[in-house]
């Protein structure tokens, strides 16, 4: 890889980082009040953890890291919080909305968001270990 | 191989998606940065809770009917309320919140069919509420009867309960900012037939 191409790749990663951070900050601020932000945290951690598990599997099978990894996290977060968009439009939550990565029931696990925080850190570690192994065994 | 070509030291390098072996220290840095950032967000969210908030945020504004032992038969707040065939929103309100809520009512609740609205408070006077709103002085009794979480133990809370037309309590939450979130109350009421 040439130095120029490396810089282009890095700048593209920068752009995805900025998009990810800007959208997540916007979503966080859209949840009014600390009690609502408790919900943002749950859905972010669940969405991100799910994405990291899938990313680890995909990276392992493809023998290379997934492209635009932060967008995977953003996409699964948006999927997990989809019922909140519906709520804003005037429809209450229903039990069946658990199909959105446990949108309803995940709030009630013991330990609340600290449990999901621990799950997220484990899945992030798993993905990073996967990236480390596949890039060392199968360098591009 | 240069550091840039290794994918670990380019500006804004992306070790999560690097195609070349990133430095292990970069991977550890990513993990630590995520742990610290999200830990700080969770802590900040927790610290932002006020004494009037539910100690368990999972039960505050859950947006879901029939949580935490509901539905149950709703206690009467007056001989006429709740009335069979009509829905009821009972607001339990701290003294300093009464004026703001009464000024905001009925707001988005206006025009909802078969709906009674009541405001209960231990304030010395419940003034300024629209004529169609029933006011009740015995907030302490109602807070206990309706099973609101009462974190301060002195009824210094603000929240509301929604009773359906069959006389069952379907929703119950603390909500210190309810006067600013009446659109959300209307959403809940519309879901409780």
Report on this model:
The complex is a heterodimer of chains A (about 140) and B (about 190). Chain A has helices at about 5-30, 35-60, 70-80, 80-90, 110-135. Chain A has about 140 residues and is mostly helical. Chain A is globular, with a radius of gyration of 17 Å. Chain A starts with a helix and ends with a helix. With about 190 residues, chain B is α/β, with parallel strands linked by helices. Chain B contains 4 helices and 6 strands. Chain B has helices at about 25-45, 100-105, 140-145, 180-190; strands at about 70-75, 85-90, 115-120, 135, 160-165, 170-175. The interface between A and B is large, with 55 and 48 residues.
Describe the secondary structure blueprint for this structure.
The complex is a heterodimer of chains A (140) and B (193).
Chain A (H helix, E strand, L loop, with lengths): L2 H28 L3 H29 L6 H12 L1 H7 L23 H26 L3
Chain B lengths: L23 H24 L24 E2 L13 E6 L5 H7 L10 E6 L12 E4 L2 H8 L12 E5 L4 E7 L7 H10 L2
Helix content of chain A: over 70%
The termini of chain B sit apart by 69 Å
Count helical runs of chain A.
Answer: 5
Order of helices and strands of chain A: HHHHH
- Strand tally of chain B is 6
User: Number of DSSP helices of chain B?
Assistant: 4
Described by strand count, sense and barrel closure, the largest sheet of chain A is: none
Gyration radius of chain A, rounded: 17 Å
Distance between the termini of chain A: 9 Å
Biggest sheet, spatial arrangement of strands of chain B:
1-6-5-2-3-4
Q: Shape of chain A from CA axes?
A: globular
SS class of chain B: alpha/beta
Protein chains sharing the most extensive interface: A-B, 55 and 48 residues
The oligomeric status of these chains comes to heterodimer
Q: On the 0-100 scale, what is the average pLDDT of chain A?
A: 91
> What structural class do the secondary elements of chain A suggest?
mainly alpha
Tell how many strands the DSSP assignment of chain A holds.
0
As a percent range, the share of strand residues of chain B is 15-25%
Major sheet attributes of chain B? 6 strands, mixed
Instruction: Summarize the helix and strand pattern of chain B as letters.
Output: HEEHEEHEEH
